Amino acid sequence: MLDSNFLTGMIPTEIGMLSNLIELRLSHNTLKGTIPSEIGQITGLRGIHLSFNYLTQNIPIEFAMLSNLQNLQLKGNTLSGEAPLGVCKLREGNLNSFGGACRREFICNCCDRCSLGSYCSPAPCFVY
């Protein structure tokens, strides 16, 4: 667990080589750049916590390969674009928590309901 550890810089692409990783917890740091698509290679991941950093651009489409993913937390970044449809389809499996600012940080068609200022959730959106 590396939440709130004053980490800086970019998340290295080599993170995809951590094949036995179950939880990726890097929230509340000052990480910047894009979310590496290589995270999608860690098929045993159950949780990705990248909230409250300075991450930009899109949610990697490779996250759709994470069939064991239960918790995806991306709120508090400057992500853009649309949540990949494959990630939305994960809610049909194990994904039960998907946090990110709906329509403010990225477009989220995964939500059952969303309004400005709400956060995306596979169930009705919830507010943080």
Write up this protein.
This protein has 128 residues and is mainly beta. The protein has one helix at residues 85-89; strands at residues 8-10, 23-25, 30-34, 47-49, 54-57, 71-73, 78-79, 97-99. Strands 1-3-5-7 form a 4-stranded parallel beta sheet, with no helix packed on it. The protein is globular and about 35 Å long.
Topology summary:
Elements: E1 8-10, E2 23-25, E3 30-34, E4 47-49, E5 54-57, E6 71-73, E7 78-79, H1 85-89, E8 97-99
Parallel strand pairs: 1-3, 2-4, 3-5, 4-6, 5-7, 6-8
Question: With helices defined by DSSP (H or I, 4 residues minimum), what is the helix count?
Answer: 1
| Helix vs. strand class | mainly beta
Low-confidence stretches: 113-118, 121-128
SSE pattern: EEEEEEEHE
State the total count of DSSP E strands: 8
Strand sequence of the main sheet, in spatial order?
1-3-5-7
The proportion of residues forming helix, as a percent range, comes to under 10%
Q: Could you give a short account of the major beta sheet?
A: 4 strands, parallel
**Net shape:** globular
Radius of gyration: 13 Å
Could you report the average pLDDT, rounded to the nearest whole number?
Answer: 80
Determine the strand fraction and express it as a percent band.
15-25%
Q: How far is the first residue's CA from the last residue's CA?
A: 22 Å
Descriptive key words:
128 residues, mainly beta, four-stranded parallel sheet, 8 strands, 4% helix
Concise account of the structure shown:
The protein has about 130 residues and is mainly β. The protein has one helix at about 85-90; strands at about 10, 25, 30-35, 45-50, 55, 70-75, 80, 95-100.
